[in-house]
Amino acid sequence: MSIPAGRAIPEPTIIEGDFVPTREVPFSSALDELIAAIRKGDAPNLGRFCGYCCTPLRKRDETCPTCGTSEREAAPREKISRSLAEIYTRKRKREGRWVHGAAWSGLVLGTLISVLLIMTLPGWTKILAVVFMIVGSYFIATYMANVLVQNRAYRSGLEFFARGWSVYLHTREQGRLEDD
Ligand SMILES: [Zn+2]
């Protein structure tokens, strides 16, 4: 699947660091959590979902909290679209790779610093290098994974979703969705 010509990929709306769902990029954290639970076998793929973006709807929701679509505009569905669930899952994996990559870089950096310390510290103080290798590397890795990369992973994930969603929507509008 690819983006059709003349159709731009929508930009995720991010206000003060927080993503705001729109009809153009209707990413739902509730749906994201639910899909992860279904994958683990902790929840059934059955309920009441927005007819446009598959966000789980509560009884009192007259319009979708994610995309604002009313039940009259699009009848609610009972199952999550499998093609859409696939996009959510791939987005999660992608973010996971960012975080793992950052943690590994942190460990490598920590080890390099330790080696440098072993070479430069005199006598018994070389023991400090070993302590650093164990404790310091851990902190550098955690810091890089949790603080440095999080924001980047967050944005990259949303951009990935925006792209996946527009391909999904286009395919759906054309009636070419096989496993909906
Ligand atoms: Zn919706």
Small molecules bound: zinc ion
SSE ordering: EEHHHH
Strand content: under 5%
Query: Which regions are unreliable across 5 or more consecutive residues at pLDDT < 50?
Result: none
Number of strands: 2
Topology readout:
Elements: E1 13-15, E2 18-20, H1 29-40, H2 82-120, H3 126-148, H4 150-173
Antiparallel strand pairs: 1-2
Helix pairs in contact: 2-3, 2-4
The structure holds zinc ion.
Characterization of the model:
With 180 residues, this protein is mainly alpha-helical. It is 54% helix and 3% strand. The protein is built from four helices and two strands, in the order ββαααα. It has helices at residues 29-40, 82-120, 126-148, 150-173; strands at 13-15, 18-20. Strands 1-2 form a two-stranded antiparallel ribbon. Strand 1 (13-15) and strand 2 form a beta hairpin. Helix 2 runs antiparallel to helix 3 (126-148) and helix 2 (82-120) runs antiparallel to helix 4 (150-173). The protein is elongated. The model has no long low-confidence stretch (mean pLDDT 90).
